[in-house]
Amino acid sequence: MSAASDDLVVLVVDDDFRVARLHAEYAARVPGVRVLEPVGTAAAARRAIAQHRPGLVLLDAYLPDESGLDLLRDIDADVFLLSAASDADTVRTALRRGALCYLIKPFAADALTDRIAAFQRFANVVPADPARTLDQEAIERGLRIVHSGDSPGGSRSRSATEQAVLDAVERADAELSAVDVAERVGVSRATAQRYLSGLAADGSIRVQLNYGSTGRPEHRYLPRG
Amino acid sequence: MSAASDDLVVLVVDDDFRVARLHAEYAARVPGVRVLEPVGTAAAARRAIAQHRPGLVLLDAYLPDESGLDLLRDIDADVFLLSAASDADTVRTALRRGALCYLIKPFAADALTDRIAAFQRFANVVPADPARTLDQEAIERGLRIVHSGDSPGGSRSRSATEQAVLDAVERADAELSAVDVAERVGVSRATAQRYLSGLAADGSIRVQLNYGSTGRPEHRYLPRG
DNA sequence: ACCCCCTGAGCACAATGCGCAAAACCGGTT
DNA sequence: AACCGGTTTTGCGCATTGTGCTCAGGGGGT
């Protein structure tokens, strides 16, 4: 794994060049990994993949010229899907189209480095080599390896209620008051407000004050945008 | 799980009609599975998939009119790849194109039935539902379930108590709290909860949070959808 | 005897709803 | 402009309920 010709060649595809650089830098920390210059569009990804034939593509779900999930179907490369999207349908689609791994942005470096290292071990057990014959146990051991690893290193996991409050705000087609959110989630106003103020404080949602009726200004909540 | 509308619809695609029937019969043994009439060509598979929208396709790698691996890329369905081919390159290609499982023919019935049951549990944890939000842990747990639900060649057997807890949830005509389950099974609340949380984690049952009274939200358990 | 697995009891603490006081607003009056 | 009253909303403390964990004990297998 020390000879350059044996390195795992990794390509990062993300239209946000700072994010792309960050992920490229994470990947470069893994021993035996060589990272190509990141690209920001599906078209550039196709060209880079055809030219360099990377062993692994770190693919963003949303690209300016094409859905990353559609590109995923076409490129016939080993892919990790990296996305801020965390709805189950997107995850299912990505997996169905061949993503070996799905990482919710933002994530800590070790979430990605652990996964890449696991992929390297997987590729050792299940190499892309027609001369190698596997039995069922080896295949399943390989799959367990690629999905093994340490606990997810991403951001702090939200509680179910906090996530439900955030979802209610993100899914609304208009700004919501605390009372609105409480009704939608099914919790008390006080609980909704508790979470809303926390989410606003950490920048996950936005607040606007609504004036014009007697009484305190009403806080209205919107997605971060 | 008795309502036909909640069944997992499975399509077998294999040109050897005896093998296809055998695999269809295996699949039909899994509770909650409805098996379509098998088809023997890629063209027929495309038609059947467009018409019936199966939840799972059991796909042979070699079809008379097209490579099963090429069809795999096109059909955008959840697929198990079943093949006599055991070279590592074919395995890698299948996984890269989205096969959730690779079974080397011939295989025993329980190799397939266990995998299908694991898929059902996976689909409970990662449903194809845009309204559901997942965290990284849930995604990875889902992947572990589908790839390594049980050890090869046989089910991990449930203890009597675990089975009794699962039965209590499945038989109830309404969602149950841990206290309810404890009473029905005749174990302590802590024991019931221990098993309930394990069953929920492995996708065998669903949890909903019940709000409205002071104190922590109450976990309510339902059968898998 | 030793080990492993399972169970229940007890406890710490997480998370919720309720009730209330205070903050903040608007409109009217002086 | 300043003040007041009425109203609405926010934010906090507290009591309560539920979850998850630890530990001791029991039973079964080797």
What is the strand content of chain A? 15-25%
Q: Give the distance, in angstroms, between the N- and C-terminal Cα atoms of chain A.
A: 44 Å
Number of domains of chain A: 2
Here the CATH topology of the largest domain in chain A equals Rossmann fold
| Low-confidence residue ranges of chain A | none
Subcellular location (chains A, B): Cytoplasm
GO cellular component, one term (chains A, B): cytoplasm
Main location (chains A, B): cytoplasm
Pfam families (chains A, B): HTH_IclR, Response_reg
Describe what you observe in this structure.
The structure is a homodimer of 225-residue chains. With 225 residues, chain A is an alpha/beta fold. The first copy, chain A, has two domains: 143 residues, Response regulator (Rossmann fold, 3-Layer(aba) Sandwich), CATH 3.40.50; 64 residues, Arc Repressor Mutant, subunit A. The first copy, chain A, is built from nine helices and eight strands. In chain A, the strands form two sheets. The first copy, chain A, has a five-stranded parallel beta sheet with strand order 2-1-3-4-5, sandwiched between helices. Chain A has a three-stranded antiparallel beta sheet with strand order 6-8-7. In chain A, helix 5 runs antiparallel to helix 6 and helix 7 crosses helix 9. Chain A is elongated and about 75 Å long. The mean pLDDT of chain A is 92. At the A-B interface, helix 4, strand 5, helix 6 and helix 7 of A face helix 4, strand 5 and helix 6 of B. The first copy, chain A, binds a DNA duplex (30 and 30 nucleotides) through helix 9.
